[in-house]
């Protein structure tokens, strides 16, 4: 299914030599599925790790490997291939190729194409940790950034050589997210966004607890959309099994109190706070330190509940609060309860939905409550809806400079 960021984009995907070439097969699949066209250009070294036939099958286009390819009528592949491109992405980008780019070398088709381009260039480094840490490599990367080239990654972790450290290429999904982010309008550039997502879990004993069916999908989609809009994003997540969106700082918590504490530590430094998490209203007072046993003839256990802190209201009450956005998941009478909650929490914008009907689903529809009235957004998948909500939030931001 096409995505808004990449639909209709034409990418030149340059591959240099390295074991990480295997990741580019999946990356190509993701890009084409998102609606982009992908023109693969490979160095001779890259063909030693994965074949042009494989990349042609995945991209649906002939692969170019030589400056002297006779398929180009004017024999100027280095000119013709780049002129239609919205961007050139080099993945994997080897140590050698980074050095070529930094010094303007043009001794094969891919390097010449990069020097002759008139479109953006993104590189995705992949190399051994010592090669990445080498002072020459670091000087080259600094120069590339100074030249306006986007450097995506690298990641840290186990490497093909058996060592562990920085230099590992981003996984295909993360690379895809980074490319999509590059093409997104930066309507939140310079802004800091703090948001919560998922459920909380309130223990009864070491193995049992009270929670809810929130999947965290909406909150994670908003984190992704905010990051792609140029924001610095801090995501405070309850217990969910979701991948962290590319470029987002994630802090995992379990209980409502832990989520409250994490939010309050950072709220003063945020421009925007979005409270998406389904936070438990109550917790058990003095949860059992041992598992509560079921014993024949024994009376049923009883619990005393105490109220959890109200995260949204706490942020709104700060002396200089960020632009505060709340979420309300109601089981009925949404228009009545949504506006009542907005006023009671004293927030400028509250987003309401019929939560029990959408928990765990991939789509949703919402109503925006504010002092000026009500705005309805049509049902859409949660990522599309998240992008629309970020546009709505950005439109309502006060005309002030971002917090530094």
UniProtKB/TrEMBL annotation:
Q: Where is this region: Phosphopantothenoylcysteine decarboxylase?
A: 1-192
Q: Which reaction does it catalyse?
A: (R)-4'-phosphopantothenate + L-cysteine + CTP = N-[(R)-4-phosphopantothenoyl]-L-cysteine + CMP + diphosphate + H(+); N-[(R)-4-phosphopantothenoyl]-L-cysteine + H(+) = (R)-4'-phosphopantetheine + CO2
Q: Pfam families from the xrefs? A: DFP (PF04127), Flavoprotein (PF02441)
Q: InterPro entries of this UniProt entry?
A: CoaB-like_sf, CoaBC, DNA/pantothenate-metab_flavo_C, Flavin_trans-like, Flavoprotein
The active site consists of: 161
Q: Which residues form the Flavoprotein domain?
A: 9-179
Specify the DNA/pantothenate metabolism flavoprotein C-terminal domain's residue ranges: 188-395
Which E.C. number(s) belong to this protein? 4.1.1.36, 6.3.2.5
Q: In which pathway does it act?
A: Cofactor biosynthesis; coenzyme A biosynthesis; CoA from (R)-pantothenate: step 3/5; Cofactor biosynthesis; coenzyme A biosynthesis; CoA from (R)-pantothenate: step 2/5
Q: Where is this region: Phosphopantothenate--cysteine ligase?
A: 193-404
Q: Which domain of life is it from?
A: Bacteria
On whether Lyase is a keyword of this UniProt record, the answer is: yes
The record's annotation in PANTHER family points to: HOMO-OLIGOMERIC FLAVIN CONTAINING CYS DECARBOXYLASE FAMILY, PHOSPHOPANTOTHENOYLCYSTEINE DECARBOXYLASE
Q: What is this protein called?
A: Coenzyme A biosynthesis bifunctional protein CoaBC
Protein species of origin: Paraburkholderia haematera
**What is the gene called?**
coaBC
